[in-house]
Sequence to fold (146 residues):
Amino acid sequence: MILDVNEIQKILPHRPPFLLVDRIVELEPHKRIVGIKNVTMNEPFFVGHFPNFPVMPGVLIIEAMAQTGGVLALRDESDYADRLVLFAAIERAKFRRPVVPGDQMRMELEVLSRRATFCRMQGKCFVDGELAAEAIIMCKMAEKSR
Fold:
């Protein structure tokens, strides 16, 4: 393990129940990152999505990938504590299989391009080695307003 949840929370402003990445297991600065999310029945969204057939919402799978990418985008910035990573675009999102309680999501993101405040990444989410979702995620690094 490279980063545990406590170290992730030093980088990202997200907190439970909206922190959707539990650990980082691989990291190549400015290039690639792999994060893990353990999906449990205790997730608050399962109460209504869907009763008697719990499925993780696709938008939250994308959010989990984006948070993992946010760690990559911010970790090596000297002023990461003063910055946020915001969605700028989501392209080519596809959902291949449902994510359900008991699954472990492996989110792999690779930088496609990066400029001073923008980063474009290819994200893939796997469950048991099977592709569950994928998307191209563009984010903007912004200063936190005080």
